[in-house]
Write a structure and sequence with these properties.
Largest sheet: none
Number of strands: 0
Oligomer: single chain
Radius of gyration: 18 Å
CATH class of the largest domain: Mainly Alpha
Order of helices and strands: HHHHHHHHHHHHH
Shape: globular
Amino acid sequence: MLRSTAATDAIDALKQLGTRKGRDGMARYGLPSDKAFGVSVKDIQALAKRLGKDHRLAAALWTSGWHEARMLACYVDEPARVTSTQMDAWVRDFDNWGICDTVCFVLFDKTPHAWKKVEAWSKRREEYVKRAAFALLWGLTVHDKEAEDARFLRGLELIEVAATDERHYVKKAVNMALRATGKRNASLRAAALASARKLALLTSEPARWTGRDALRELSKRA
């Protein structure tokens, strides 16, 4: 009951912070505004800081289905307590790029299951599950300071396979993961440039776009 009350109180706080202007802004960026309050990320982060880390509260917030409650959930959850099953359940609920990227960057890439999910989700067909694989890889390039290059080289292989996907939200995540991998260190930049050159020569339009875009950015850093 305590946890349910805490979740209810948190959702009530989000309602108070929401605005019509915020909801309209979300709609302009392709984010759902039908079950949203219109709360800024800054206000969500501030509320999360006041609440502190709480795995059970995060679960209750996620179950509510409210967009901002789910955003808040990824800030208050405890990465070490996140299970593989939870990750698979949450990723099935992803219905927009904003929640996908935020959960992957803020929470999932700090869990012990992150690398396994990159591999597994990259093979899934669902648009936001597949995007999550590469949003997660993108996050790991920044947050996993101890990862060996071999993990990212495998990520480049997955990128090359997925680069022919024509769906906008998959294509954008694949592109960002490729560019981010190339920014990790000099060795991975060389490998990412090689992948980009390969993609730029394919007949697939999404692959060519990804390859050429990455080449433009990564070549500036060479």
